[in-house]
């Protein structure tokens, strides 16, 4: 059994790096952010003020039915086929449509999947290079299409970022593209749009936002400026997630989670995530488990694994979430499961015979694991999967 949080000591792990107030950091934000209930209709006002006549909305089937709430002018086409875990064929089908309708404006209207491939479509619509030529940092060219992001869940924070991930079906790896040219011209965060999110999805996406904040806060690249957003985001999830799960119509709770998600997005660009996301990715790429749920399942395990490196930050996280005393992993597990999240890989269709392959895949994601606060081996990743089974 793991040691209780109060007794965790850093003696068995490398000490956390000291905060450096002078370490260089670049912070980017969408050119304009509109936040608040009822703001969704501003998308149409903004588009009209920019002379937009042809818009392509990137969405899933559910949100496609409420595109009219955006109030967009001119010709509005809708790509309503976004997958929960977008792959390369899904993206290329979207890009072909964006070119066919000669989109002047692309709107990501949905969760992180819709917003991610909306970013990619915006930079690919005029670019003849292949997707693989854009993978990595700063390879995308300037775009002619405008980009607006409107999240309908509170989890990914993708509306605020410059990074997008797509699964390559040949390798089952998530490939990341990062570019300032994928930063939204306008982000609209309207908490009312999240009122229809079911309790289980509310819980999972809220824990995804939490994971963004926690992993950035504890990363080797942690920075005091980003810590401010991370700590506040953790506290907002701790205060409002249970309320929103219990009552989807709780407007204050929905607004609090929308803000937590935005803060999590602010954490992703300058610092990014670590082992929690790396270990969760194979759940999506190999088994189609939604990103938020995958992160929720893994969250208690990586939180407890990293705690010995910086027990002060671990205690701060636990306090902001209102976790019970005692074993940290068990407390975090109960906190997640208590909101209806299925926390067992076996119940999500994952068998023990696939765990080794998942561990191989996760251990190869060095862009995240190299910044985890504590070194983690392939065997330790496998152990986390086995514990979560």
UniProtKB/TrEMBL annotation:
Domain Alcohol dehydrogenase iron-type/glycerol dehydrogenase GldA: 30-191
Domain Fe-containing alcohol dehydrogenase-like C-terminal: 202-389
Organism domain of life: Bacteria
Gene3D superfamilies reported for this sequence: 3.40.50.1970, Dehydroquinate synthase-like - alpha domain (1.20.1090.10)
Reported cofactor(s): Fe cation
Pfam family name, one: Fe-ADH
CDD domains tied to this protein: Fe-ADH
Keywords: NAD, Oxidoreductase
Protein family according to the UniProt entry: Belongs to the iron-containing alcohol dehydrogenase family.
The protein's name: Alcohol dehydrogenase
Organism: Devosia yakushimensis
Native organism taxonomy: Bacteria, Pseudomonadati, Pseudomonadota, Alphaproteobacteria, Hyphomicrobiales
């Amino acid at each position: 059994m793991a040691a209780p949080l109060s007794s965790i000591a850093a003696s068995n792990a490398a000490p956390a790096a000291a905060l450096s107030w002078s370490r260089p950091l670049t912070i980017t934000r969408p050119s304009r952010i509109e936040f608040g209930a009822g703001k969704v209709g501003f998308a149409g006002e903004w588009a009209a003020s920019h002379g937009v006549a042809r818009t392509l909305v990137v969405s899933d089937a559910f949100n496609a039915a409420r595109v009219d709430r955006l109030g967009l002018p001119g010709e509005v086409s809708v790509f309503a086929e976004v997958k929960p875990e977008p792959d390369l064929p899904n993206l290329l089908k979207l890009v072909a449509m964006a070119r066919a309708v000669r989109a002047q404006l692309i709107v990501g209207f949905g969760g992180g999947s819709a917003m991610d491939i909306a970013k990619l479509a915006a930079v690919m619509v005029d670019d003849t290079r292949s997707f693989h030529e854009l993978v990595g940092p700063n390879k995308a060219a300037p775009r002619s299409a405008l980009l607006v992001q409107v999240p309908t869940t509170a989890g990914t924070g993708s509306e605020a970022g410059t990074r997008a991930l797509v699964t390559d079906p040949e390798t089952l790896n998530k490939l990341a593209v990062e570019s300032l040219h994928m930063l939204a011209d306008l982000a609209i965060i309207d908490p009312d749009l999240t009122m229809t999110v079911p309790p289980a999805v509310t819980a999972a996406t809220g824990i995804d936002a939490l994971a963004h904040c926690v992993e950035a806060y504890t990363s080797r690249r942690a920075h005091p400026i980003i810590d401010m957003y991370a700590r506040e985001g953790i506290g907002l999830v701790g205060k409002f997630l249970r309320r929103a799960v219990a009552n989807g119509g709780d407007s204050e709770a929905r607004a609090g989670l929308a803000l937590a998600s935005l803060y999590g997005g602010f954490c992703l660009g300058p610092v990014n995530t670590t082992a929690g996301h790396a270990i969760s990715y194979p759940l999506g790429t190999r088994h189609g488990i939604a990103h938020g749920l995958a992160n929720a399942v893994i969250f208690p395990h990586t939180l407890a694994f990293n705690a010995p490196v910086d027990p002060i930050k671990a205690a701060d996280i636990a306090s902001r979430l209102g976790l019970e005393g005692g074993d940290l992993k068990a407390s975090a597990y109960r906190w997640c499961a208590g909101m209806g999240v299925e926390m067992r890989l076996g119940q999500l269709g994952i068998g023990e015979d696939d765990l080794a392959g998942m561990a191989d895949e996760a251990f190869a994601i060095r862009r995240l694991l190299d910044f985890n606060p504590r070194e983690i081996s392939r065997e330790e990743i496998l152990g986390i999967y086995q514990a979560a089974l």
